[in-house]
Amino acid sequence: MNEDAIIRKLRRHAPLIGDDCAVVPAPHGQDLLFTTDFSIEGVHFTQESRPEQIGRRAVARSLSDIAAMGGKPLYCLVSLALGRWTDRRWMNGFYRGVNQLLRETKTRLAGGDISHAPQLVCDVMLCGSVGSGKALRRSGAKVGDSIYVSGPLGGWRHKPEIVPRLDIGRKLIGKATSCMDISDGLALDLHRLSIASGVAAEIDSVPLLEGASLEQALHDGEDYELLYTAHPERRVPGIRIGTIRKGKPGMLRFRGKTLAPIGYDHFQ
Ligand SMILES: [Mg+2]
Predict the structure, then answer these.
(1) The dihedral of CA 40, 46, 47, 51: what is its sign?
(2) What does each C-alpha distance from 169 to 134, 193, 210, 220, 222 come to in angstroms?
(3) Ligand 1 centroid vs 169 CA: distance in angstroms?
(4) What is the whole-number distance in angstroms between the Cα of residue 167 and the centre of ligand 1?
(5) CA of 67 to the centre of ligand 1 (A)
(6) How far apart (Å, rounded) are the C-alpha atoms in residues 81 and 119?
(7) Position 267 in a domain
């Protein structure tokens, strides 16, 4: 299968593909959101992983970033560097997974690139939108705010599928004072949010996925739940886990003890 054949096939369901660039109208009164995520053989999946699952997961990770900003996903670009071992069946499965999740979330495939490399690399770029000036940022948490997560935690060992929390993200617009998604573990990501907001944070309790340990919920990556803060009297969805405190920015405490901001670090 050559590149033109692949593109012809993709175009059947994605009419935005075909020119040198996709052309779309600029949304009125909205800010645009852009995010991109790699999925790499040997890092995020292996040759034994199901291609549908690789495709779906690659898109889900970028969708989770759009959710974390309170946004609505619009367009997706998928670039692939194929490994020597990938065949037509793999490609079909991969795009089946991609298209399935794009359909479920009303996101349109707008292009991408295909090449070859010693190992398979996939890059998913997503564009979304949010009301002008309304995006949920990491930097707005205030002392006294309650801290929430959108669901129980436990890390990649206990989370076979990523469910991007797009509904919850949109419900938090105008309510949450800060928000991000948990990709590298609660402790490390809450540390990042606290630094961005110039505050400290105290966790009282952590909701656990079935079979997960507290250690895994605090420090393993790939939960992809939302982590957010709101004024304590605000009604927001999710599970309350603690309180924003005055203190050294990024300092974490868990049940009275200092909590190290350890999580998944791509450079270690
Ligand atoms: Mg993120």
Answers:
(1) negative
(2) 12, 16, 24, 22, 17
(3) 12
(4) 16
(5) 9
(6) 8
(7) no
The tens digit of pLDDT for each residue in 160-185 reads: 889 999 999 999 999 999 999 999 99
Total residue length of the chain: 268
The amino acid present at 115, given as its one-letter code, is S
Cα 190 to averaged position of ligand 1 atoms, centre (Å): 12
Same-domain check for residues 202 and 92: no
Looking at the domain assignment, is residue 21 inside a domain? Answer: no
Query: For the whole prediction, is pTM greater than 0.85?
Result: yes
Contact 75, 16 (CB under 8 A): yes
Residues 126 and 201 in one domain: no
Question: How many angstroms from the chain centroid is the CA of residue 64?
Answer: 3
| Gap from CA of 4 to ligand 1 centroid (Å) | 34
Domain of 59, in residue numbers = 32-131
Per-residue pLDDT tens over the stretch 221-255: 899 999 999 999 999 999 999 999 999 999 999 99
**Given 131, 159, 187, which residue is the final one in a domain?**
131
Tell me the C-alpha distance between 214 and 17, whole Å: 46
Of the candidates 250, 151, 154, 242, the one whose C-alpha atom is nearest the C-alpha of residue 193 is 250
The answer to whether the beta carbons of residues 95 and 12 sit under 8 Å apart is no
